[in-house]
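input
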Amino acid sequence: MSAQNGPGSQRPQPPQAQGQQQNHDRFRPRPDPVPPQGQPVQGQPVQGQPMPPHMQPMVQGQPMPGQPVMYVQPPVQARVYAQPRFAPTVTQEMRIRAGMQAPQQVVTDTPWTGAVRQSQPEAAPDSTGNIVRLVAAILVLVVLVIGLAGLALLGGLSFGVRLFALIGLSAVPLLGIIAYVLWLDRWKPQPKLLLGICLLWGAVASVILTLGFSLVGEVALYIVGINGVPDIIGAVIQAPILEESTKTVLLVVIVLAARRHFEGPLDGLVYGSLIGAGFAFTENILYLGQSWNDGELPGLAVTFAMRCLGSPLLHTAFSTCAGVSIGFAARKWPWWSLILMWLPGLLLGMVLHGFWNASMTFLGVLGQLTRDVMGGMLPQIIGLIVLSAVLSGAWVTLGLILRRSERLHTQNMLGDYANSGWLTHAEVDMLGTWKGRKNGRSWAKSFPGGKEEMKTMIRTSGKLSTTRMRVLAGIGGEQERKIERAELKQFADARERLLTASKQTLR
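output
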């Protein structure tokens, strides 16, 4: 009988090796926390005690005398990723409850990450509900386009060929807002279909709804014997309530019907901004056309300077409030809380809108005392510039803060996959930074088809961060876990194809 069959050969296997065998196709248990300084880690030798033979080091690549050659897969080195400021806190208990299935082969290193520093996949599970939502979104888009055509026809009857000039002038601030919003949305782009619906909803549906509700209110007041609403009440109270409600109600519909695409405050800012920009576009056409008809070109120039150049972001900033408040709840809270979180943002938008209208009304009255200076418009011009600068600066700054928070949130979620062996920490560092993504694309484009595979990895990493948060929050149930597994396979397949292409090129 050989020495390997003696009593000494029956010692238990190391705890890490046992865990790998038992949990090969099951969700892993809670990862061991980092022990306090001075306490041993499970599976590691304790100072002052003899090291077990199976953990003794190899000398120049050779096994110790009398010991068999062992090939034990190295454990994954866990890392703690920083929590972003504007994202829900993820606890260890949440990660245990949403345990992750380990890959068949743990990723320890990938050549492409080091190379970057130096220099058709499986689809996600679908459902009938997704198809219904897609069809409904397309129908809504078609209806909005038809409504836009109707408004254009009415505008043509009212302004004639001047309508084309009015559209061009109103598009000046609109194009700038769209460019900035799309830049904010680059990290994890949302479906262009939803972005288009938001823009058209603001430009068409919210305008029609506001005019319709205003007309109904006027008729109701006339029936009870009240001859209309005073201008000051209409500007300070009625307009903010109607306009902000009709604009931002779409945000509630999106987060309830397509929550996967409304996953945080940055998404809310993007959607809300586009709705407000669309509303301002149509409103500017109406005001510019009226000024052109009343005061000819001088009146048109004054209105363009004050609305399109002096205060281009008002409706955008007002609508953003509701989008951001809903976004804070969208990642983690139940569906009914999303409706409740619409209310504080809606109220804030109404207050800001009413304050703006009240300020302009008051400054207009004050200007009547200084008619000799710029026709009494000086107070309004000064107030407009100051208030608009504050609102615009706050909106731009909030976008930058949320954009950075979104990047950190993605890195934090991908860290779960790195700690479980699906990704390497180097991959998380690269996929979780703008510079890393840029360097990755630059490196991959030197291989046939490599740039497209890298784009797939970058795009899938953004999807995985959303999916991981939904799994941690218990949203979506088993369907969400299926989506997570499919996206992990999609990422792994793209990485494998990229590495294969790089090796073939090197040959």
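quick obs: The two ends are 50 Å apart (CA to CA).
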